[in-house]
Design goal:
281 residues; 10 helices; mainly alpha; globular
């Protein structure tokens, strides 16, 4: 057991998902998401290394489970992407430009991913695709755990996403990095959802390789989601979007509301009162 833990730790430390990006260039909002990605990944690994000491903690941190903290977080990621791209679509949609009709579509696509994280739609559809297998069951096939949903659903989804990205490419003029982040981030996510999940059929659940498979799959998905979020946020920043709020200055005198609203008639009344005071003096 000790040797297994040592090998697991050494294997995880060799995994490199982080490109050589200066932290100073990452917006604060995106950096927070990256830190949460790492925290969720490390939380899962540490909990597994210590043998899942607390059932409640395992339910919250287990990356292979649904309806827990990582699931909620992933759903939030895709929802934020949908909001950012939705704002961009509202600003650039033109009824006469058919290409602009695709902008709301890609926003809705990410909204569907957010819903899917909670509603588990692709798992349900994946079970329905078993009808395409011999005998209508995945039991006696090479993919007894996952079925063929990766090919029937994942393949068309990837093709549709690539087509959408290349179709809206003109809207990324002068902001090529945002387009690259959207594309690469989605590829990272799909490499986990389609690639590493396929390995579920060939590893023993709970074994060292099973833990590494779960970590690789789910960590790719959440990190890829953050990269996509980064691209969508960078796209908005390039077109004047800003998250800003004037801070409250503690100890400053409270501003009293004006006795008169700033309307044309009240402005004349203020000037008349001021002139009257001047003449009286």
């Amino acid at each position: 057991m000790v040797n297994m833990r040592r090998l697991l730790i050494s294997s995880v430390t060799r995994l490199s998902f982080w490109p050589s990006i200066s932290v100073r260039r990452i917006p604060a909002l995106i950096l927070i998401f990256f830190l949460i990605d790492v925290a969720l990944g490390l939380g899962y690994i540490v909990n597994e290394l210590f043998g899942r000491p607390y059932d409640k903690l395992t339910l919250l941190l287990d990356l292979s489970r649904e309806s827990n903290l990582p699931t909620w977080y992933s759903s939030t990621q895709w929802f934020c992407v949908a909001i950012f791209l939705g704002l961009f679509a509202c600003s650039n949609f033109r009824l006469a430009q058919r290409r602009s009709w695709l902008l709301p579509l890609i926003s809705l696509l990410f909204l569907a991913l957010s819903v899917d994280e909670v509603a588990r739609i692709h798992e349900w559809l994946g079970e329905k695709t078993d009808i395409l297998l011999p005998g209508g069951s995945r039991t006696n096939t090479m993919v007894p755990e996952t079925g063929i949903w990766m090919l029937v659903i994942g393949g068309p989804f990837l093709a549709a996403f690539v087509w959408l990205i290349f179709s809206i490419r003109p809207y990324f003029q002068g902001n090529r990095n945002a387009l690259i982040k959207l594309f690469v981030g989605m590829l990272i996510t799909l490499s986990g959802a389609l690639g590493f999940e396929t390995l579920t059929n060939f590893v023993v659940p709970g074994s060292m390789y099973g833990i590494l498979r779960v970590f690789s799959e789910e960590f790719c998905e959440i990190v890829g989601g953050t990269v996509v979020l980064w691209g969508s946020y960078e796209l908005l920043l390039a077109h004047g979007f800003a998250l800003s709020l004037a801070p409250v200055v503690l100890g400053s005198p409270a501003q009293k509301p004006s006795l008169y609203p700033t309307t044309p008639n009240n402005s004349k009344r203020k000037r008349a009162l001021s002139n009257g005071r001047t003449r009286a003096a």
